[in-house]
Protein 1
Amino acid sequence: MSALVPAPTGRRLKALARAELTLLGRNRGALVTALLVPLALPFSVRPAVDRIDLEAQGLSIGTVMLTAAIGFSFLFAVYTSLVSAYVARREELVLKRLRTGELGDAEILTGTALPAVSVGFAQALVLGVGCAVLLDAGAPRAAYLTVLGLVAGLVLCAALAAVTATLTRTVESAQVTALPLVLVSMVGSGIAVPTEVMPDTLARVCELLPLSPAIQLVRGGWTGQLSGYEVLVAVATTVAWTGLAVFAVRRWFRWEPRR
Amino acid sequence: MNTNEHEHVIEVTDLRRVYGGGFEAVRGISFSVGRGEVFALLGTNGAGKTSTVELLEGLARPAGGRVRVLGHDPYEERAAVRPRTGVMLQEGGFPSELTVAETTRMWGGCVSGARPEDEALALVGLTGRSGVRVKQLSGGERRRLDLALALLGRPEVLFLDEPTTGLDAEGRRDTWELVRALRDGGTTVLLTTHYLEEAEGLADRLAILHEGSVAATGTPLEVTARQPSRISFRLPEGYFLGDLPPLAELGVCGHEVDGGLVRLRTRELQRTATGLLVWAERAGVELHGLDVRPASLEEAFLGIARERAVAA
């Protein structure tokens, strides 16, 4: 028996991610959702933000708009576009075909997610610099928290996209099944409305929503107003949601269409 | 080195598969495939061919029984088996917006010790189509792309689920030649088909599946030998069946007469044919439209389906 050297994970992920990036580039609808929506939507919430007394909460237009933009990037560039991608690959039997090869399940899902997650990351960088310069948000006070929030949000969005894909039968219905998380996060996770301006009890409940801790970390890193305890709770909440999502994917993810 | 592995590359024992709704698609089948053999699973649609192959490929966990591929459990020991197997599913799963070259490059990046992509495409005659998107390929071209990807990792064991469905006659011949060449190179091939001539011409051994069970197994010759051979001819005007030597003496096990057309069934073809021809020679009788043929796989196949239908 010849000793086969298995292809290294890095090379396999790269091959898969490259194909997926090509596909993203050829899907105009997905491209618009991923690239333009996160850049355009924050301006639609601006009038509402203007009416809020931000200074009393230690916020500024810049930081609020920035987190809104990054939040929209999580939801549209990563989450929504990945739900469609996972469902499309499953319905075309691509996932099933990939599972006959050397890739592990986690590698297949990760490789497929890489382009969307990279787009989300790049967008966050552009938005961060843009808001810092154009809206006088300034440099983040605790940049490591912002980065932590970014990574947490991106990973969790990818995992939640796989969970949502499990509940989605067709690419068309992905527009509907992705909606609940998008709406709940916009309203409750501090994307369209900063949680700081909510009544206390409501704010505390909303802090437990999946994307709340990531947004909180991103904004907190910018304003430098998070206590160590708050950071800890945010990280723990993200880890719990990610763990739950990973468990759900391992348990229920469908690798081929229902017949 | 495990010698057993060289004798039986695939071992299936009392394999069962039950789907979510409780439907038992595979009902306790057993067979084994030796190194360098071409083994065909033959059956009608719904006989359990794909359900069985998916268990061998390690795509699902069996409800019961045991599968070993190259000495490993293909489901539990995926990492040990996959680098050494190549799979062609019944329906290719490729993103329709990628080109042939992009698809091959992607797959090549995920395979250990991959052949050059051009070589794999050349093997299946798709070289000229590398810039074409998958969605623009014909059904036959898609099957060939699928085969190219299955061959990309120079597999020791190849699983082909209906490899020639949708191919034209020429494409089918090409695929057969390729499979034979691979077999001669030492590759073990397990294929499913509902084309009888494909199983007869290509397989070293085969199993006929019927409703999730193995109805018959062996070499194509062994399987067909269990069916009677056939002789048919027309007697000239004025001659009747009774003019022949006693049928039992000729080794005939069944007969039909339809107008002047006589059909005989026998398990001793040479004895029956000799007896018949010697009689005709002596009697000076011309047997019009004389047709002598050993049982074909098709008859074996239909015979099995009939028996089962009667038993049911």
Protein 2
Amino acid sequence: MSENKKWMPRWFYQLASPRWSYEIMGKLLPGFAVAATLLLIGGIIWALAFAPEDYQQGNSFRIIYIHVPSAILAQSCYMLMAVAGAIGLIWKMKVADMVAKSCAPIGASIAILALATGAIWGKPTWGSWWVWDARLTSMLILLFLYLGVIALHSAIESEATAAQSSAVLALVGLVNIPIIKYSVDWWNTLHQPATFTLTERPAMPAEMWVPLLIMVIGFYCFFAVSLMMRTRNEILHRERRSSWVRELIEKR
Amino acid sequence: MEQILTNERSDSAENTLMGLFWAVLKRDLMLAYRKKSDLFNPLVFFLMVATLFPLGVSPEPDFLAEVAPGVVWVAALLATLLSMDSLFRSDFEDGTLEQTLLSPQPLFVIVLSKVLAHWMMSGLPLTLLAPLLGVMLFLPAEGMSGLMLSLLLGTPTLSLVGAIGAALTVGLRKGGVLISLLVLPLYIPVLIFGTSAVQAAVTGLPLAGFFALLGAMLALGVVMAPLAIAAALRISVSG
């Protein structure tokens, strides 16, 4: 163990303490909330009012500023849930379990947002609300994976067992996500390729993708705020018998 | 039998890993053989689901021939899913599972053997029965070999992945519906490549690629799934 402690930073072990995590999240929360508000409001005004029209799709393309950030975030949120679940399994950290539990409903609602905006965008562009296209389908399957994790968590009464079981399921899902993605890709493709890739410059002009990037970062900040609020609630609920939570409540 | 359930390690030749594997396989097959309803119910279900499609959609031979690969595969998938819940259930209820977890033998091997026994009692009969459904649904004769081979390669993966769901829900009283929720999304790649292989066989396209992909998924499943199943069993039983 002593060797382990050398390569794992100190703050990592401190995160295992619910009280410490509660306090550090309380300190981070206002900053992220301000950043999320500014970025989302600024980004949406730029995107809806000032970004140029698409030469083929006209104004209907502007839904991309909600659709793409939510689609990216829905996938990252699953990764975070699986990683937090793995940390909970390996180091038996209660806080990691709580983060994983808080991720599931947020991720599911963001996946629904991505699917809904995709459907609304599909109507003027492809002429139908839903097509069995590869990326729509893999997002739908991602939503199913989220729903499975939520269902399993709520079916098990003991919190510790529920957290471990859903972590195993999330990890199995994580291994499967690339397989599902490629299988669905080969099966049928109508959707345009990914808007952002790490290696290439976007194909759209800067006036279009800069607001999109702002919206993506804004979505991440919003996700951080919502995740921290949920996790803080979860910490208070699970630690309700400990003395520091009682003191905190008596102070109010 | 006694060898599996004892806590002491003995050094006899029969107590190697292969010996353990065969002992668990023999025990599970014998249990399944003595409880025949568990063996036949999924098969009957498989036949009935396939019967519903001509009744519900259309009895036209041309139409049925077109949808046959998908219908047979979906029916096989649902029948496997239906049989999944019983995989660890009776062992859990009579305490055998707890003893298995306490034993010094590697859980990986025991779990793999149990899944193989389960597949021999569900996936293999389904594969053998599939041509009958193919004929009922007017699947062209060229597609039969593709159908059987794809099921032969695909149903073990279905059993392995389904066993993860069964292991996660074994401690719950109402595991049945929950398993489907957990496992169905994970079955999708197998379904896609399985039906694609049959369709390719019908139209005379090369099949090797689809079989390679199904085989790759099976190989991945054999290596990874028992780890997840073993972890899930430990969590479910201790919790």
Protein 3
Amino acid sequence: MEAIILQVLNGLDKGSAYALIALGLTLIFGTLGVVNFAHGALFMLGAFCAVTLSRILTLSREVIDETQKDFLGNPLKVEIPYVHDIFGETLGATIIDWSVPLAIIIAIPIMIAFGVAMERGLIKYFYKRPHADQILVTFGLAIVLQEIIKYFYGANPIPTPAPEAFIGSFDFGALIGMDPNVIIYPYWRLVYFAFAMIIITAVFAFLQFTTFGMVVRAGMADRETVGLLGINIDRRFTIMFGIAAAVAGLAGVMYTPIVAPNYHMGMDFLVLSFVVVVVGGMGSLPGAVLAGFLLGILESFASMGAVIDLIPGINQVIIYLVAIVILLIRPRGLMGRKGVMEE
Amino acid sequence: MLGLNKKDFTLLLIVVILTMLAPFILNPFPESSDLAQFNAGYPDLMQRFVIFGIFAIGFNILFGLTGYLSFGHAAFLGVGSYAAMWVFKLLGMNVLPALAISVLMSGVFAVLIGYISLRRSGIYFSILTLAFAMMSYALAYSVLATDMDGPGQQGLLQKGLTGGETGLQLTLQDPRILGTQTTETGNTPVPSLFGLEMRSSAEWAVGDWLFTFSVGYYFCAVIMLIAFYLSIRIFRSPFGMMLRAVKSNQQRMSYTGLNPKPYTLAAFVISGMYAGLAGGLMVAMDPLAGPERMFWTASGEVVLMTILGGAGTLIGPVLGAGVIKYMENIISKINSTILHEWFAFMPDGIEDAMVTMVYPFIGKGWHLTLGIMFMLVVIFLPGGLVEGGQRIARLFRRRKDKPSGGDPEHHPKPAPHVAE
């Protein structure tokens, strides 16, 4: 029982990332009908928003501190971040400590702007082209984005810690009345899961309960008719592309404390996210979220020692295996809509 | 001639001449000149040109003709490599049986994967092939690399079937029942064709030029030419016509009473065998096989090559493979010192500015150049470099005011890549 709960929990954080990326992919696919291979790169860009912010916040000036001596007896040089000058020492330190959550604030406008620019500047010209062309051009864009990031930030992963309050783990088992020290779970992963749930809920609520969302849903169902009603559906779809980019970006921002970001993290996630989208059903938002969590949890179950002993290597291939089986026995995916990308 | 029409025969002849004279053509700059770094006439790189050419020709048979975009073709490359490696380990160092087995093994693999993947088309097919390739990669990396000899045994399978991260290597203990276990000097033998060592080469110095003729290159080149010839025959055959029918309208094809499935499967298997042949050749040139050959980026590379050169055209994939491999090796070698030399004629400030501007695109940044080039090609030239060449040619023809009498069959217009 403990083992099962532990694996479910372990699967949640990866599942959350899969779900968020897959959600964005599906939003783009459902609205614009574009297969976006650059979505992983957007995830990576989000992560590097966090890295950039933490670098900006820690920009410092050097001061010679006479009260402290180094081992040679010379006065020690102390770096004082400008943030300390502006906000005072305690508040400044807190701001630096919370740089990752703060990055959310800057990541949202940046990612939306980037998404809109990408749609208007590039994707727009590919609606009438075949899916393979869309795959190829976004694949090329992903390479370009990766290489730009690599040029500025180098090829090594850049560790970006979570706020101190969330570092460490807690005893999840004790909370739900089990023996202590059975289920230890890091705080940040729980934060990530909660954050993902908030984003997912927000996206669904936005689509379900706002007029804007209603129009977008109508456009997803029948673009032409909505256009005939005099609604500028293209503009709304562009904004949806921006939102999808922001969702991927936020997933990236919050993922930085879990895995130190490097320039190819997006591609690593993208391959799996596509599998998730296909398993969930092309064009189905709930399907994408469900499949994201399912596959994340499945992956963590497959990494259990007992399972690996039984079927060696299963943890490496389980997601692909599931995808193949699902695609063959249920071609529409778990919750795919009828008539979307079916042959 | 050779069952080809005049135009195709001319094309084949040009390719034959180019590949045979490649050591000269790719070495246009004298050794002592500043431009010597742009020479690509060394065996290692030339071998890569033709090997990846084979890989891309095979990929083009699937993608260019049927429109099925496989994102997992590197799996066959890997299978071919491992198969050839095992032939070297078990039988002997002759390259012919190794190549035969690698083609056979990758063919068997392609039948398995193709039979399942081809049940879907469009993006689903891409994802399925990607999933299979990543599975093969993961298996080669971990499970198949575990000790299968049993504890305490120091046998052949001590590092599993694939050797894991370090890859599969030749060792002195390999049986090699038809060949020699060790050379007289006590080293592992090298791949050869009936005693002709693949790595041996002859050099010819003419003035300031140094030309290298390597056995390995010419062996690969001959195989590439055979592969190219076969691909022309496939393009021109009724079978090739059927594959084009799959691309242009699969539904109509079924309505006329033809079952597209066997045709696509055959195309998939053929292109898988080409990939296996390329993998086998890689091992024949450099006896080492690692799992990274199956990684999805390797599959992406062959997609890039084919699209860049021109999918669905005969010469495009070879061209694309050449361009990408050339860039990979030459552009990545340029560093900022060389750039400074280039722009030295400019005033200092402008020189520095130019160097700073160009720097991100060279050296380690060559992927950036590749990505931008690829995007530009996909956006503006869906038919790849071949289409670009045709457009330029047409421009000239129009200037001369001659009616264009090109054979539309020869380089078919870029049709939608995926059968929808």
